[in-house]
Design goal:
InterPro entries: ARM-like, ARM-type_fold, ELMO_ARM, ELMO_dom, ELMO_domain-containing, PH-like_dom_sf, PH_domain
Organism: Rhynochetos jubatus (kagu)
Keywords: Apoptosis, Phagocytosis, SH3-binding
Pfam family, one: ELMO_ARM
Protein name: ELMO3 protein
Oligomer: single chain
Number of strands: 9
Mean pLDDT: 84
Strand content: 5-15%
Distance between the termini: 87 Å
Shape: flat
Length: 679
């Protein structure tokens, strides 16, 4: 347009994030995008740089407000930081006494500028950090300022050991607990985020001490009552933090789980002896002193055998296997001390049975501890996206031990129901594992409820469930039924395709995940009703189903080239230099589009969404649906359709080969001629 001083102007998107157009991103402009002519990023940066130094508070506040929104743009952020703009922001925070709107804009701008990773968090001055900490520790501060301050500290903690120690020292756990108890859910969420960041960055010893302190402060009861059972529904992010807290708590058992028994440790030997004494005290106490050493040793060996140890002369050998290591011993001791009646009943009941039918307490406990560790993922690293926590975990002190007490009694009950002998040991424990996992999948809210349900799911119930599943399989494996299945498949696959495309038309909220942390930034993507265009754009928290007009970006389906999943995605390769998280890889997929082969990168919120989106995109690309969900959906639909078709054949056996078709008759004179009747 031959404007004079062209370098002072720039083009900018009108909708969405209002990004500036530069040489590097001009190729991404879509047909139909509305652009506006505006001052160039460097001019704007210069203007705001002077504006935030103004003595007029209105000008200063407006400049900071504009700065907070423009800082999302990488070009502007680069220009502003090059002018040493961050120094000015530090100055406003360090020198200012304002705790209201102006400060909130300043901190928001700071967060956005730091988001681009041009500047290291470690360059922050001590005075600035102290000021941010003071906003968290003061009461008379605007809630939005406290939220932003908590977010800033949460971002600082993982970047360096020095910053972690500083934040841990300055922001006490007590202070964070105070923030957790507010009614403002956003502030509560940010406080929980900082607490989790501190726990994840701590060393094992520090983490153990922090968890111990939180336990003393009854954080578990508070979470159970005020967060899980609050009137507000639980958000995805809070569910993730509760999952991490549960995971960190359970991982405190890892140390004991991986430690083998040391036969020379007096403390561990005393624990072993206490098991024997609690069970057989009354029988052996009085005369024990008068026995010779040899006699006493053989009596001990006999009692350890009754307790169910494999190696009765040296029971410590049974506990050398790690995992479950010493954790199994801790569980047995906890059971014997906290439910002595149940413990004595278990041991005495089995020591009076015939040798073949006794349920070995110690051997069962060791195996059960291992099963519980596997089910509850003890010793496994936290996932970055999972949200699956057990509400009952927060409803009970000593959750792991109490769960063990319920399950070890379940082992004895199932053993009797199965009339098992020693050879059936593995079989019994397999049934117990199934009872526990099936009950946990129902997400019971308390251990009492878990106990009721797991005991109701007895061996005969498990057999019925298995038989139903087996019958269902056998029923659907007859040759004619298999033929019918194949005939029904195309129609049902078409139904699944339609469902996938409908799901894409409804759209999904995706989260942006940076290499540093879980991001709060959200974007939405949906397919147009005519299945010709993918619309997407950034959205605010709390927006569930934005109208298609509000999503500024679009990709015509005709331009889509291919779908990449998991490790094939380019952006997962770029990030894999760090500790690449397995679950992010499992949920990642990208659409390659246009001649230039740009990529639109997704990280699905759940595996279910991942399956539906990858299937839907494959349908749009004219390819086969490949997700595991397609197979399960197809199986469900086929089994329902087959059951309906076979209803009339109840109790009739279907032959494997079709019956022979009789020969046609010699003449067809028995046919009725309708033409005469009409006349």
């Amino acid at each position: 347009w031959s404007l004079p001083n062209a370098e002072r102007y720039a083009l900018q998107y009108v909708d969405g994030r209002q990004t500036y157009i530069t040489e590097s991103n001009r190729g991404e402009i879509k047909n139909g995008s509305i652009l506006r002519l505006t001052t160039s990023p460097d001019q704007e940066a210069e203007r705001l740089y002077s504006g935030i130094q103004s003595n007029n508070s209105d000008v200063k506040t407006d400049s900071l407000k504009k700065l907070a929104s423009l800082s999302q743009d990488v070009t502007f952020a680069q220009e502003f930081i090059n002018r040493n703009g961050l120094k000015q922001i530090f100055h406003i925070v360090e020198e200012g006494n304002d705790t209201g709107e102006m400060l909130a804009h300043t901190l928001k701008a700071f967060m956005e500028l730091m988001e681009h990773d041009f500047v290291s968090w470690e360059t922050l001055s001590a005075a600035f950090i102290k000021k941010i900490v003071s906003y968290v520790n003061m009461n008379a501060v605007d809630e939005s300022v406290q939220q932003l301050s908590l977010s800033i500290l949460e971002n600082m903690v993982p970047t360096s050991r020095l910053l972690f120690e500083l934040v841990k020292k300055e922001v006490t756990l007590d202070r964070l607990l105070t923030h957790l108890q507010v009614t403002n859910t956003q502030l509560q969420l940010k406080a929980m985020a900082l607490l989790i960041a501190l726990l994840l960055a701590a060393t094992d010893v520090e983490r153990r001490n922090m968890m111990e302190y939180l336990r003393e402060k009854n954080i578990r009861q508070f979470i159970h009552k005020n967060i899980i059972h609050s009137s507000e529904p639980l958000g995805d992010e809070m569910a993730h933090y509760l999952y991490v807290l549960q995971s960190v708590s359970l991982n405190l058992f890892e140390h004991r789980m991986r430690a083998s028994m040391d036969p020379y440790s007096q403390e561990q030997r005393d624990l072993l002896q206490s098991l024997r004494q609690t069970a057989f005290e009354s029988e052996s106490e009085a005369p024990a002193s008068s026995f010779s050493t040899e006699r006493r040793r053989s009596l001990c060996a006999k009692e350890f055998r009754k307790l169910g140890f494999m190696n009765n002369s040296n029971p410590a050998e049974d506990l050398r296997r790690a995992p479950p290591g010493l954790l199994a011993l801790d569980n047995m001791v906890y059971f014997s001390r906290h439910t002595p009646n149940a413990y004595s009943r278990f041991v005495l009941e089995n020591s009076s049975r015939e040798d073949k039918h006794e349920c070995p307490f110690a051997r069962s406990s060791i195996q059960l501890t291992l099963i519980l560790c596997e089910i509850l993922h003890v010793g496994e690293p936290c996932s970055e996206t999972a949200q699956a926590f057990y509400p009952m975990f927060f409803g009970q002190d000593h959750f792991f031990e109490e769960l063990f007490c319920i399950c070890i009694q379940l082992v004895n009950k199932t053993w009797k129901e199965m009339r098992a002998t020693q050879e059936d040991f593995d079989k019994v424990l397999q049934v117990v594992r199934e009872q526990i996992t099936r009950t946990l999948s129902l997400k019971p809210t308390s251990l009492e409820l878990f106990k009721t349900r797991v005991n109701a799911l007895n061996y005969s119930e498990i057999l019925k469930l298995r038989q139903t599943e087996r019958l269902h399989q056998e029923e659907t494996l007859a040759v004619p039924v298999l033929e019918l299945r194949e005939r029904l498949k195309p129609e049902l696959l078409e139904l699944i395709r339609q469902q996938r495309l409908l799901h894409l038309c409804e759209g999904t909220l995706f989260r942006k995940i940076s290499s540093r942390r879980r991001q709060d930034k959200l974007w939405y993507c949906r397919l147009s009703p005519n299945h010709k265009v993918l619309h997407y754009g950034d959205v605010e928290e709390g927006v569930h189903s934005p109208p298609i007009e509000s999503l500024p970006e679009k990709i015509p389906v005709a331009d889509m080239k291919m779908l990449l999943v998991g490790k094939e995605c380019l952006y997962t390769k770029e990030k894999s230099s760090g500790k690449q998280n397995k679950d992010v890889l499992e949920l990642a997929f990208s659409v390659v589009y246009d001649v230039e082969e740009y990529c639109l990168n997704f990280i699905a919120p759940t595996r279910y969404e991942f399956c539906l989106w990858t299937d839907g995109l494959n349908v749009l690309l004219g390819k086969e649906m490949t997700s595991e969900r397609t197979q399960t959906d197809l199986d469900v639909l086929l089994s329902m359709e087959l059951k309906l078709r076979l209803l009339d054949l109840e109790n009739i056996s279907i032959p494997d080969t079709p019956p022979p078709i009789p020969k046609p008759p010699s003449n067809l004179n028995f046919c009725y001629d309708f033409s005469h009747a009409e006349q």
